[in-house]
Design brief:
The complex is a heterodimer of chains A (114) and B (111). With 114 residues, chain A is mainly beta. Chain A has strands at 3-7, 10-12, 18-25, 34-39, 45-51, 60-62, 70-75, 80-85, 94-99, 108-112. Helix content of chain B is 0%, strand content 49%. Classes of the chains: A mainly beta (114), B mainly beta (111).
């Protein structure tokens, strides 16, 4: 069974930082392109970014609203995906989920508020 | 950016009756590799999205065959042949051919 378990969310002040993790099991993580998607309260999903597999160069791509502030990385030895969030804004408040598109984590809530 | 427009916003349905959701893209969705990356997701209250359909018409594993996807060019459709109570939720189309963008969602509820 494939499982994606997100963690690391919380309350942070504007301008602050946070690091989210997504621990996976049951899939060939090292061969899998992984993404982060967020969903603000009462809104639809928004793709945040993705990272290619190591064999595809671990290339990262980001949505315009987060480019230069967020960084996606992976540790294939731990089957874990990361999302570093810097210079956070109130508009970044959302549930952040890791996904392969086919499989989704349960999401972790990030609240940016003073 | 590619804009995905869904209709209707809300879809009241009768149990056992068919339902159809439309999704229109602002430009064609043929990827440079020749595929059309158009997916449909179901999101039940309090849950993460669940992918139902990928590449226009391919059902994901475990998805009931009452769900079907079709379309081409810029117009795509998700159909539920006979709505069941567990189908209540919000449905999103998403294109992955030119970055990734979601439609605004269609809320399916039982009349």
């Amino acid at each position: 069974e494939v499982q994606l378990v997100g963690s690391g969310g919380g309350l942070v002040k504007p301008g602050g930082s946070l690091r989210l993790s997504c621990a996976t099991s049951g899939l060939s993580f090292s061969k899998t392109w992984m993404s982060w998607v967020r969903q603000a309260p009462g809104k639809g999903p928004e793709w945040v970014g993705r990272i290619a597999s190591k064999t595809s160069g671990e290339i990262t791509e980001y949505a315009a609203p987060v480019k230069g502030r967020f960084t996606i990385s992976r540790d294939d030895s731990k089957n874990t995906l990361y999302l570093q969030l810097n210079s956070l804004k109130t508009d970044d408040t959302a549930v952040y989920s890791c996904t392969t598109a086919e499989y989704w984590g349960q999401g972790t809530l990030v609240t940016v508020s003073s | 950016d590619v804009v995905m427009t869904q209709s209707p916003l809300s879809l009241p349905v009768t149990l056992g009756q068919p339902a159809s959701i439309s999704c229109r893209s602002s430009q064609g969705l043929v990827h440079t590799d020749g595929n059309i990356y158009l997916s449909w997701f179901q999101q039940r209250p309090g849950q993460s999205p669940r992918r139902l359909i990928y590449k226009v018409s391919n059902r994901d594993s475990g998805v009931p065959d009452r769900f079907s996807g079709s379309g081409s060019g810029t117009d795509f459709t998700l159909k539920i042949s006979r709505v069941e109570a567990e189908d209540v939720g919000v449905y999103y189309c998403m294109q992955g051919s030119h970055w990734h963008t979601f439609g605004g969602g269609t809320k399916v509820e039982i009349e």
